[in-house]
Design goal:
Helix content: 25-40%
CATH topology of the largest domain: FAD/NAD(P)-binding domain
Distance between the termini: 35 Å
Radius of gyration: 23 Å
Number of strands: 22
Strand content: 15-25%
CATH superfamily of the largest domain: FAD/NAD(P)-binding domain
Number of helices: 17
Strand order of the largest sheet: 8-7-18-19-20-17-21
């Protein structure tokens, strides 16, 4: 079947197409390519877009596989709807009918001292919004509860400089809240270390809440609520997996737009244009969008600008692995309930978290099957994710068996994916690093950087970055014919 494409561009007669190369065919790069064609069509300007992908497939970390008859995500398993960009893209692609919400039982526990302790109902971000569930929660000591309850009385920070997530949490909520809630939950989003993550770069919404009188007061007076409305939940996914979005994005581009197994090995400038060197030859471009990870772009930009490459390499990355097991439900002494659990750093386990996928999204679990998905690695624990697959699976099986009391049940199928140095870390000073990058980019008009290395790691963040990159690229390409006079930058 021929791939569907967006409607053809209304070319100006005789005008040479603007050439734009997008490096990286993850969701950021594909969203950028789609938006480029839309904006060019709107401006009635001919454009030729090429998307280069170093691996054998498009999609980046978005990857759905069928394991033991079950739909398994080896990367993100859902997206948050409080940020609208990903949900809007799904609707634009005509996939709204395939959306499924999470199950009503959204219980998440924290593994502490060998016990799974449920988070209090009504938690938003890192602050309680319901008194009774918080007051009777076994997750925190009474001293910690009192400390957290007094959070609205803690004065806001000075606003000068950067602050780690750990320091911010200790200042506002206390050490126990950090160890049992904030570090497992928020640092886990980045596979990072709370002592190093920048609250300003990774979680700016916490600083905004602080300015509104404190975390709890800010949530009560203006933060989005976790309501299930019109069939939408806080987290959504697609019944057949998130790869459906990648397939639709790729299929709607003109044939031949995406070139897999085609890494950009070098960037050059010549004759007022960009030259993107690949193993299959050199592509000329008026504008280049890099949606590749910062280290990959650094390698390609080394000969062009060593300082730019240096600044890109200043952004650290960590390694993680996801492990999915498919069990026969009859082999388990009890069925897991809720969404899963997080682990405190001193929990004495390989796991950083686990998701009960068949409970979180029961609509796509085969009848009689239980799917458990575990996460290992992250900043300071990378060796666990960089080990051999057999070792990772053996250790994860042992941990799950002990924590969930699985009775030694043997999974029917397994899938492990290692994401080596694939998780950007927004450590303290990340904002300053981005400023230095922007300063370097002023010497390279027509080069736009986008993706999770810079301004957000979630799928909505990546979609927003890709669309913004397309806007900057078309401003550079269509705004002026003298490309050397156009300064673009960071999307």
């Amino acid at each position: 079947m021929r791939p569907r494409t967006e409607r053809p561009l209304r070319d100006r007669r005789g005008e040479e197409p603007t050439k734009i190369v997008v490096i990286g065919a993850g969701i950021t790069g594909l969203a950028a390519a789609r938006e480029l064609l839309r904006l060019a069509d709107k401006a009635r300007r001919p454009v030729h877009v090429s998307v280069l992908e170093a691996s054998a497939r498009a999609g980046g970390k978005v990857r759905t596989e069928t394991v033991g008859g079950a739909v398994v995500e080896t990367g993100p398993d859902s997206f948050v709807t409080l940020k609208p960009e990903m949900l809007e893209l799904v609707k634009e692609l005509g996939l709204e009918s395939e959306l499924i919400p999470t199950a009503p039982d959204a219980t998440v526990s924290v593994l502490k001292d060998g016990r799974l302790l449920p988070m209090p109902a009504g938690m938003q971000l890192v602050s309680p919004t319901r008194l009774l569930p918080f007051a009777f929660s076994p997750l925190f000591s009474w001293r910690a509860k009192l400390r957290m309850a007094l959070e609205p009385l803690v004065p806001a920070g000075s606003g000068d400089g950067d602050e780690s997530l750990a320091d911010f949490t200790r200042r506002r909520l206390g050490s126990e809240a950090l160890d049992r809630l904030v570090a497992p939950m928020l640092a886990g989003i980045f596979a990072g270390d709370a002592e190093r993550l920048s609250v300003r770069s990774a979680f700016p919404q916490l600083l905004e809440l602080e300015k509104r009188g404190g975390l709890a007061r800010g949530l009560w007076t203006g933060a989005p609520k976790r309501a299930r409305r019109d069939g939408f939940s806080t987290f959504m996914t697609l019944k057949c997996g998130l790869t459906r979005v990648i397939e639709e994005l790729e299929g709607r581009l003109p044939p031949g737009t995406v070139r897999v197994d085609c890494p950009a090995t070098a960037l050059r400038r010549g004759g007022g244009r960009w030259q993107v060197v690949t193993p299959r030859g050199t592509l000329e471009a008026d504008v280049v969008i890099s949606a590749a990870p910062a280290p990959a772009l650094a390698d390609a930009a080394e000969g062009l600008d060593p300082e730019l490459a240096l600044r890109l390499r200043e952004i650290p990355f960590s390694s993680t692995a996801t492990v999915s097991f498919v069990y026969d439900a009859k082999s388990l002494p009890r069925l897991p309930r809720g969404f899963g659990f997080l682990t405190a750093r001193d929990a004495g386990t390989t796991l950083t978290a686990a998701t009960f996928s068949s409970s979180k999204f029961p609509q796509r679990a085969p009848a009689g099957k239980v799917i458990l998905r575990a996460f290992v690695g992250g900043a300071g624990r990378e060796a666990e994710a960089e080990a051999g697959v057999a070792r990772i699976e053996a250790r994860v099986r042992g941990d799950l068996d002990r924590v969930l009391a699985l009775g030694g049940a043997v999974p029917e199928a397994a899938r492990t994916t290692r994401w080596l140095k694939a998780n950007p870390q927004y450590d303290v000073g990340h904002g300053l690093r981005l400023q230095r990058l922007v300063s370097c980019l002023k010497s390279h008009p027509g080069l736009v950087l986008a993706g999770c290395s810079y301004h957000g790691v979630g799928l909505p963040d990546c979609v927003r970055s890709g669309k913004r990159a397309a806007e900057l690229a078309t401003q550079a390409a269509f705004g002026r014919r003298n490309h050397d006079a156009v300064h673009v930058g960071l999307a």
